[in-house]
Amino acid sequence: MSQANVEIAQKGIEAWNLRDAELWLSYAAPEIEWVPAGPAAVERAVYRGHDEVASGLEAVWQTWDRFEFQESQVRDLGDSALWLGSLKMHGGASDIQLDQEFAIHSLVSDGKLVRVQAFSSWHEALKAVGLE
């Protein structure tokens, strides 16, 4: 089951890179909780449920005309997966460009994402999941 959880986490990243909120939400449970980090926390610190998450995704994509994840590795943690990679961003109005390491911890239950938490650094994410 844990490899399936890794695949769900990776499919969520792929849907994000496609800017497809409907596809991303198809991998998420109705009670999904998304905790963005840094530049993704446009409107609030935590989004709950499909409607809030869809609104948050749209806000991010309106603010950043490029917001793309590039994978380095994914760690199988049993009932969750830790995605480690980088994030490349470009602000549409601001013309700000960022390229930074990034991490996403995805908790999966019954084949659906139930909690997705982002981190602005690998160290912060590894510490949060007890792997520092």
Care to describe what's here?
- With 132 residues, the protein is an alpha+beta fold.
- The protein has a single domain (2-128), classed as Roll (Nuclear Transport Factor 2, Chain: A), CATH 3.10.450.
- It has four helices and six strands.
- It has helices at 2-17, 21-26, 49-63, 122-128; strands spanning 28-35, 47-48, 64-76, 80-91, 97-109, 112-119.
- A six-stranded mixed beta sheet has the order 2-1-6-5-4-3, with helices on both faces.
- The longest helix has 16 residues, at 2-17.
- The chain is globular and about 40 Å long.
- The two termini are 25 Å apart.
- The mean pLDDT is 90.
Helices and strands in order:
Blueprint: H1 2-17, H2 21-26, E1 28-35, E2 47-48, H3 49-63, E3 64-76, E4 80-91, E5 97-109, E6 112-119, H4 122-128
Parallel strand pairs: 1-6
Antiparallel strand pairs: 1-2, 3-4, 4-5, 5-6
Short descriptors:
single chain, Nuclear Transport Factor 2, Chain: A
Summarize the structure.
This protein has 132 residues and is α+β, with helices and mostly antiparallel strands.
Q: Mind telling me which CATH architecture this is?
A: Roll
How many domains? The number is 1
CATH C-level: Alpha Beta
Q: What value does the Rg take, in angstroms?
A: 14 Å
Principal-axis shape equals globular
Spell out the helices and strands N to C.
HHEEHEEEEH
CATH topology grouping: Nuclear Transport Factor 2, Chain: A
| Number of helices, counting only DSSP H or I runs of 4 residues or more | 4
